Amino acid sequence: MMNVPAGVASDDPILQLPKVSLHDHLDGGLRPSTMLELADSIGHTLPASDAESLRRWFSESANSGDLVRYLETFSHTVAVMQSEDNLRRVAKEWVLDQVADGVFYAEARWAPEQHLEGGLELDAVVEAVQDGLEAGVSEAAAEGKYIRVGQLITAMRQADNSLAIAELAIRHREKGADSGVIGFDIAGPENGFPPSAHLSAFNALHQAYVPVTIHAGEAAGKESIHEAVTICHAQRLGHGARIVEDMDIVDGQGQLGSLAAWVLDQQIPLELCPSSNLQTDIGGTIASHPITGLKDLGFAVTINPDNRLMSGTSVSREMRLLVDEAGWNQTDLEWATVNAITAAFLPLDVRERMLDEILIPGFARVTI
């Protein structure tokens, strides 16, 4: 069953726009109703006993400004994702919620090492998630909806096993398209855990031709971005919003530092997540969030939800906020979506076909 995506009216024409979601955490997108069922089945205590109260608790915690309380939200989602059956269900529903949001391509970003408490092995959790993703794709197809999804295998930057997780990604990537693994990421606390600390993992991925995106420029500043793109071979930047710290904007004109100029000139995609960024003290408001200024300067910005549950959001809601509060129009939304499909970790011919057959005609059919 598909849910109406968070934060938009059911008749909002933005729902009909074809979308791409590149920065979308699997453990940040569970349905509250599903969490209640799974928690009950394993004896895990949640902070609320009904779906609406639980949804509200997640939103309030994420908006509290208290990092400890924010991180607690993930302790609950991860707790119910420790068995193959639960992983399959969460992954399947994640796909169906993407479809309801108008997403035709999505990358499920998640950290297998966080799902071993029930005794599973790394390969087993990857395979369970893939089974769930495929079940979601099949159910959507049965309802006449198309979506393609892939797994972004993520290592936790505060841990010391990133090489093992990189090897996991390589192992499944080498199985071919059927494995579902399309790339690699590192996540977790950015301050104090620079990308270069995981250089052996990134070198192994680079040599195995596995695409990489790195959480950088969210909690830490331009040095994190510098390491991601110049040392660790990142093809994309997870967030990257703090690239503005390497520029001086006056009356809409940008004086760019060498790093910002490189990111712009190379068109390194920025996986920006406006609502989530406000919760981590980037931007202040949607209107003042860096995404609009970066768009106007020609950076390869993309629009993403990050954690749908914690931010009470969806790609459609992020688009609606940009239109209503930051002055975006449909052409801007299309341009950002073109950036996203161009940056997808997919073969070139697939990206071009999606652009020509889904994205461009889809935007032409809708007027927001």
UniProtKB/TrEMBL annotation:
Known EC number: 3.5.4.4
Limits of the Adenosine deaminase domain: 18-358
Cofactor: Zn(2+)
Stored InterPro entries: A_deaminase_dom, Ado/ade_deaminase, Metal_Hydrolase
Pfam families: A_deaminase
Coiled-coil regions listed in the entry: none
Keyword line: Hydrolase, Metal-binding, Zinc
Gene3D superfamilies registered for this protein in UniProt: Metal-dependent hydrolases (3.20.20.140)
Assigned protein family: Belongs to the metallo-dependent hydrolases superfamily. Adenosine and AMP deaminases family.
Name of the protein: adenosine deaminase
UniProt source species: Brevibacterium sediminis
Source lineage: Bacteria, Bacillati, Actinomycetota, Actinomycetes, Micrococcales
